[in-house]
Design goal:
This protein is of the alpha+beta class. It is 61% helix and 12% strand. A hairpin with a 2-residue loop joins strand 2 (115-121) and strand 3 (124-129). It is elongated and about 65 Å long.
Amino acid sequence: MFILFFLIWVIFNGQWTAEIAAFGVVIAGLMYLFLCKFLNYSPKYDLFFLKKSPLLIQYMFTLVIEIIKANLAVFRLIYTAEYELEPAVVHFQTDLRSTFARVLLANSITLTPGTITVSLQDDHYMVHCLDKDLAEGIADSVFVKLLRKIEEN
């Protein structure tokens, strides 16, 4: 997080000098200390994200690919005149343990066109799908599999 604060400082300044870098280190350090003291942030979160970064990057690429595929599927559903849409509300549970993974799954479902996470309570999801075909396999999707892998490590 310290590095992120420092990079934001440098980007907002728009130039690189020793003075800007020195002030950036001090300000980023103060921001990081504030985060740790008053917002219950811990350096172990930074270690967690560093350790999980390859899997999280893989997850982001998978999310982009799934968004593209869902866009094409929704486009095909909307512009196919002979097919009548059948909206569906799907309820399912997942075995994801961490709140981080559950919320990431809910947001990924919502970001994917044609589906919206209506509610998330503990491990129970309620998802509205534009068509019942989009609801197939949602409980054991590629997102769930990758999030399980992230939780295992």
